[in-house]
Design a protein that fits this description.
Blueprint: H1 2-24, H2 29-55, H3 63-68, H4 79-93, H5 95-118, H6 126-133, H7 135-141, H8 158-169
Helix pairs in contact: 1-2, 4-5, 6-7
Length: 171
């Protein structure tokens, strides 16, 4: 009984509004009746849809829908890339880190590139390696480079680092 009362409130209200509009607008009877019929049909349809949903609840999500949804990719940085980035940052900060952290990988890269592309041994043919690398890069990667006297002295400047990378790429 309570459900019938709840469902019947809105149509009853619309019927009252219908009577008032029929009295207030006598020349528009056909239009008022069409609007009333449309409103009653909309109410009936919404109750019908609600009853069907209650009777047949849908699955949370189908396997097909789950497969279609794009998954957000986590941006994971490669550990090797993070290590190189850290070595470069530290090498630019202090002379100590330039010599002991950034220089060894630069030496390894220069040695491998010289051997593979030019047939030059970095330590076996220092003059040929010096000509191929250029003075700035050679000063960093040469085997007899002295450790810095000042640990906290200036590291490698950005312009110099760019020149070193350019000379290595040119090999």
């Amino acid at each position: 009984m309570r459900t019938v009362m709840r469902v019947g409130r809105l149509p009853a209200l619309l019927t009252v509004v219908l009577v008032v509009l029929l009295v207030a607008l006598p020349g528009r009877t056909e239009l008022v009746l069409h609007v009333y019929a449309l409103a009653i049909a909309a109410i009936a349809l919404s109750h019908l849809v609600g009853a069907v949903r209650a009777a047949y609840p849908g699955a949370a999500e189908s396997v097909f829908d789950a497969a279609l949804r794009t998954r957000a990719r986590r941006e994971e940085r490669l550990p090797e890339f993070a290590k190189v980035e850290r070595e470069v940052s530290l090498g630019m900060a202090t002379a100590f880190d330039l010599h002991y952290r950034l220089r060894p990988p630069l030496r390894r890269i220069a040695g491998e590139l010289l051997a593979a592309r030019r047939g030059i041994d970095l330590d076996g043919s220092p003059e040929a390696a010096r000509r191929a690398l250029g003075e700035e890069t050679w000063e960093i990667v040469r085997a007899d480079r002295e450790p810095p006297r000042e640990r906290y002295g200036a590291g490698l400047q950005l312009v110099a680092l760019r020149d070193v990378v350019t000379s290595l790429e040119a090999l």
